[in-house]
Records
---
Amino acid sequence: MGSRIPSHQLSNGLYVSGRPEQLKERQPTMASRAVPYTGGDIKNSGELGKMFDIGNPPTPPAKLSRPSSASSSSQHNSGSVRSGPNSGPIPRKSSGPMTPLQPTGLITSGPLGSSAGRRSGQLEPTGSIGKSTYGSAVTTLNEDAKLGLKVSKPVMWVFLVVAVMGLVVGAFLMVAAKRAVVLVAVVGVLVPVAVGVIWNCAWKRRGLLGFLKRYPDAELRGAVDGQYVKVTGVVTCGSIPLESSFQKVPRCVYISTELYEYRGWGGKSANSRHRFFSWGCRYAEKYVADFYISDFQSGLRAQVKAGYGAKVAAFVKPTTIADITKENRELSPSFIRWLADRNLSSDDRIMRLQEGYIKEGSTVSVMGVVRRHDNVVMIVPPAEPISTSCQWTRCLLPTYTEGLVLTCDESQNADVIPV
C-alpha cells in the first residue's frame, strides 16, 4: 500500500504537490522620509551628533500625564515603555573618550595630530617639547655654502716656484753685487699678487652673489633635459613643510637658526676657528626640503629636489632677532627656554640669535639641472660645481660653489604672495 503524496490547491485553481507554504509575519517597515542636508553641522545630524555628545539645545521636559489602566497594561505587555520609579532615558555606556570629529567629516581611530600614517621625515617631537627633528627626507645643512677660487693648480705651483726663485736670486745679487734691482722687481710683482689674493678671498662671496643675480632667467617650458637653468618664481611647500626653530614660522621650505657668541680678550671660544674680538657660531640648525616653484615667465610648475641629502648652497640673509647681554638675559624667558631645549649653557656670554627662512609664497631663484620624467619637470643639483668667469672689472678670479643654488632677495618681514 503506497503512501499518498500530500498536495494542495493554489489560488488560481491548480493542484501542486507538497505542503502549503507557511506565510511568515512580515516585519513592519518604517516609512522613508527625505533627510534635510545639514551642511556638515553635527548638531543637525541627529544620531551622529549624539555619538559625539553634541546635541541640540536642551528643550524643557514634557509633563507626563498618568496613563489609564488599559493603556498602562498594553504598554507593559508590549515592552516598548516600562513605567516605574526609575523610568527615564537609558544611559549610554562609554568605553573611553570619544574621538573628535575631523574637519573633513571623516571618523578616524586616533586623535587629531596622531603620528599614525605620518610620512617619513615629517616633524617629530624629540625628548624636549621645544626642539624638533626631521627624518631623512629633509636635508640637514651642517655648514655654510662651500665657496672656492677656481684657479689651476699647475699654474699656481709654477707661479710659486718662480716667485721663490726670483726672491732667492734677487737677495743673492743684492748681497754679492750690491744690486737690489732684481729683488725690488720681484717684490713689486709679488705685492700686487698678494693684494689680489686677499681681495678675492674677502669679496668672493659678494662676487658670486652678483654673478648669480645677473645670470639670465630661463623659460622652464622650453628647457631641455639636462640643461642648467636659473628659474625665478613663487615657491610652495612639498609634502613636508618646515617650521622655524625660534619664531615658529609655519610652512617654510628652508629654515636656519644660528647662535653666535662674541669672544673678547680671554673669553671662551664658540668653535675651533673663533678668533679674538669677533663673533663665532656656537650652534646652528639649517634644514631644506623638496618644494615646488612656479616659473614667472612660462607659469610652469617644477619640483625642486632639495631633500634627501641633496647638496644645496643656500644664500638667504638671516635676521637678528635677539641680542643677549648680561643685563637683559633674564628679560627673555623664551630665549632661555630655547637654550635649555638644546642643552646649551646660558652663562655670562654675549650672544646673538639669527634666524632666516623662506616661507611659502616667497619669490626665490633656483639654479640647477632640468630633469623631465613623463609630464613631471624637476630641478636637481648639478653633478659638477658651478663656476663664475673672471670678473676683470672687479678684479675677481673665477669662484665656484657646489650643489643646488638657492637665493632669496626678499625681506623676511615683507608680505609674501598668498598661495
---
Amino acid sequence: MDLRGPVRDFLLRSLSRLERIEMVISNYSCYDYLQGRDFICIQSMDGMLMLFEQESYAFGRFLQGFLLPGPLAYSSRTDSFITVSSCQQVESYKDLKGVIVTLSDDGHLQCSYLGTDPSLFQAPKVDSREINYEEMNAEIKELQRIIREATKTQDILPESEKQRDLTVTAEVSPDLDEESQAIDSEVKAGAVPSVTVKITIQSRVTAQKPSLVVCVQAPLAVSCDQFVFDDLEPDSSETVVLSVFLKENCSPPELEGTCMVSYNIATGIPRVSQCSFSLPLKLVCFPAQPSKAANHKLTIDTNKPPISFVTLFPDFVDPSEGDQANALGFQFITGSKATLLASKTSQRYRIQSDQLEDLWLVTKELIYRLEGHFKKQNCKDFECTFSGSIPLQEYFELIDRHFELRLNAEKYQELLSERAVQFRAIERRLLTRFKEKTPAPLQHLDTLLEGTFREVSAV
C-alpha cells in the first residue's frame, strides 16, 4: 500500500496522539452516547469498570463477585454494558446518577429519579429560503382532501364480517323483585327494592375465555358484577341473571348500567363487545303526596301542550285519577321528596324539592319520557328548553358542604386512630400489672380505660 502523498498526510493528521494514560486493561468498549462525543468503558484486571468521557476520566465502579475478566459489549437499546461473570452469568450494568433505590414491603425494587435530564437540543440553522405561500396553500388543500376521503363513512370490515362475532344484550325486568336481592345495603329505609337484569351473550364464532363485567355507578350496586364462561362454540349463547339495588344512602347521579364482554377469537385476537341498559325510576323512589312548597324549583319549557301524567308516568299515577292529575310526588327511599307539576294554562313543567340534588333524576326522567312519547307519534320538532337562571350558588354550596364532610371524615379518622392507640397502650399496662405476683395499685388506669372506650364508641 502506497502511503505517500495526501494519503500519508491524512493518516498522520488522524493518528495524532492527544493524551497517554498508563494502565493494565483486559477489555474495553467504545460507545457514542451523545452525538459528537465519545465515551470509553474499560474493564481492568481487578474487576473495575472505568468510564472516560472523551479524554477525561469520569468515574469507576468495581464489579461484584469478580474473578477473571470477561467479554464486554455496549447495548445502545438499553444504554448498558453487558459482560459475562466468572459464574457464567450474563450481567448488565448501567450507572445512573441521582437515583433513589427503594424496596417496598412486598419485595418490589424501584429506582426513582428526581428531576429531569438536561435538554441537549440544539437549534437548527435558520433556513433563509423564502416561503412560497401558493405551494403551501396547495399542499394544505390536498391534505384536507385526503382527510375528507379517509373520514367518509365506509365499511371497514369485509362483507362477511359486517355482523358482529359476539353480541351482548341486557333486558331489565319491568317490575321490581318480589323478594329484594339487596345485599349489605346502607340505606336506612325498611325495605330496599331491587330489579332483575337478564344478560344474554350470543356468539357467531368460537369465543375463547369470554368474561362478562357489569358496571353501575355508585351508590348503585349489583348482586354479582363479574362472570367467567367456558369457551363458546359457534351459534351458542350464555345467559346470566343479576339484581341491581341502591347500596349507599344517597341518590344516584344516573340510572344506567353497562355490560362488557371480553374474549379472544380463534386467531388469538382480543375483542370486546358491550351494551348499556336503563334502570326504572321506581328502583330509587315510590309515589307520594306532592308538596306545595319547596326550597328549590326548576321550570322546563316545551313547544307542545302538556301531557297527562297518567300517560307519562303510568307506574306512579293511580289510573282512577284520570287526566285530572297535574301534580305528582316522588318519595326517594333515602328520605327526601320531589314534586312534579304540569301547568294547565302553559306548556311548562315544574320540578321542585327541598334538596337540589333530587331535581336531576326527576328532570331527566321527565325529558326522557316526553321525547319517547312524541317519538311514537312521529313528532320530530319537539323541544325542551330552560330559560331560568342556573342555580350556581346552590350548586357551589353543595360542593362546599361535601368538602366539609370530607374534612370532618378525615379528622374523625385521625381521632379514632389516636384513641385506639391510647386504648391499646392502657390495655398493655393493665395486663402487665395483673401479671405481677404482687400487683401494684392501678393508679386509675381502669377509669382511664373506661373513658377511652367511651370516646372510641362515640367517634
